[in-house]
Amino acid sequence: MKVWVDADACPGVIKEILFRVADRAKVEVTLVANHWMRIPPSPYINLKTVSSGFDVADDEIVKLLSAGDLVITADIPLASEVIDKGGFALNPRGELYTEQNIKSILNMRDFMDTMRASGVQTGGPAAIGASEKQAFGNQLDRFITKNHKPS
């Protein structure tokens, strides 16, 4: 099992949690981004840079992931593709996307997109706070405990 991170939009505090977990649990974490970013020296943490462009990083993640891998993303269409390929997706606020909930979440996202396109001001998500960081860390720990078998 590997962890893939849609890193361009991933909050720094979430990356820090992932870096600590990578070393503690000895799980491979790969950040996929369209620009270079600093990562700590670790045999478990990698950076894969891709060219700029719409969904280039997303497409690379879907191409590289294997069934059972975990993807960290707030991108709901990407999460849906990951699940369709047999992977798992966790957003930076600690919500695990599953086969059971992804379609309704995707439908709500599309509805809100339609609302915004018609001029309705919907606002964006609030900044990630302590409770979201804790929810993310807890969900990540549960997932890794259940699914990762260190070699």
Please characterize this protein's 3D structure:
It is a single chain. By secondary structure, the chain is α/β, with parallel strands linked by helices. It has a single domain (2-147), classed as 3-Layer(aba) Sandwich (Rossmann fold), CATH 3.40.50. 44% of the residues lie in helices and 16% in strands. The chain contains five helices and six strands. It has helices at 12-25, 56-64, 76-84, 102-117, 130-147, and strands at 2-6, 28-33, 45-49, 70-72, 88-90, 96-97. Strands 3-2-1-4-5-6 form a six-stranded mixed sheet, sandwiched between helices. A hairpin with a 5-residue loop joins β5 and β6 (96-97). α1 (12-25) packs parallel to α5 and α3 runs antiparallel to α4. The termini are close together. The relative contact order is 0.17. The mean pLDDT is 91. This is UPF0178 protein Spea_2958. Belongs to the UPF0178 family. Pfam families: DUF188.
Task: Provide a count of the helices.
Answer: 5
Largest sheet: 6 strands, mixed
* Assigned CATH class: Alpha Beta
Kindly state the percentage of residues in helix: 40-55%
Percent strand equals: 15-25%
What series of H and E elements makes up the topology?
EHEEHEHEEHH
What topology, given as strand order, has the largest sheet? 3-2-1-4-5-6
